[in-house]
Description:
Elements: E1 8-11, H1 14-25, E2 30-33, E3 38-43, H2 47-57, E4 66-68, H3 72-75, H4 83-92, E5 97-102, E6 119-123, H5 128-137, E7 141-142, H6 157-164, E8 170-173, E9 184-187, E10 193-196, H7 202-209, E11 243-244, E12 255-258, E13 272-275, H8 282-297, E14 304-306, H9 315-327
Amino acid sequence: METTLNTLLLPVGPHATATAASVLAEGGLVAFPTETVYGLGADAGNASAIARLYQAKGRPAFNPLIAHVADLASARRIALFDGQALRLAEAFWPGPLTLVLPRALSCPVAELATAGLDTVAIRVPAHKVARDIIRTFGGAVVAPSANLSGHVSPTTAEHVNGDLAGRIDLIIDGGPVEVGVESTIVGCFAEPVLLRPGGLPRAEIERVLGHSLVQPPADAEGDNAQPIAPGMLASHYAPRTPVRLNATDVHAGEALLAFGPARVARVELASVVLNLSEHGDLAEAAANLFGYLRILDTRNADTIAVMPIPDDGLGEAINDRLRRAAVGR
Ligand code: TXA
Ligand code: MG
């Protein structure tokens, strides 16, 4: 049976930080801003809190969570770092990079959060509010994106409230996030693998490594599939409205998600137009992506047509999310 919680919404500040830390310590669920997207936090060592978190999101428990910590020293108590992993952590933490590493023997993260894998995903977020909450709480915080499973990730507290009000204890409102797409995930195996393109462009990681990141095997799907990044199911980021990619023209009744100064044919047929970045700035486009998808999804359009977006830099993550949005469910 589902119970409805009274979800408290607080603006950022010392009171919010202290409340968040004590709610986490009591096994509660707290949504808070990070620089990438809003996360839904639970005490990483508390299996029953984590079970509630999976339930609140409607997320399958075979899809493991990212442990968020305050610094590299805390991360090293959770996972085993080799030289390459250390170089990446030192270069990019705090920031939008998640590393998948072998669990340390005394890893305090509950097995439920890592779906029984012998690896654990870790990230040190750069957002001041996230860092303050983690430090005040004093331990690792597992935090998936704070949306219902399968929905577009939240970039504002309003998005979180729309998906999770009544299902979680607390939402900290820190305004819109900066990056707008989730962290880049690198599997630190013998050969480092790009498990998910994200807020840290691939080229920056490859520059520090001195070589290319390996591509993950194609998305594994089907009921018993055990994908290597289990959350990367093809239709993960889907709005309800169908999505048409690489649109060079508009069909009657479509909503248009534009990019850059270029025009598309028959733009006058669009029921609504939002431009991710008039100047063609990929960072601005990433920050707008999920919010704009949510807005267009409420406009009763037949389809959301999306103009082509270059695949370099943050474009790789933007196009990855758009392809998943286009698969539908
Ligand atoms: O930017 C982000 O990473 C946000 C903020 C809140 O930090 N979090 C986020 O979490 O995007 P989530 O749960 O939506 O995505 C985490 C991804 C999932 O695809 C999951 O399968 C993968 O990380 N993952 C977690 N642990 C893993 C592991 N041990 N091995 C491989 N993939 C893992
Ligand atoms: Mg997510």
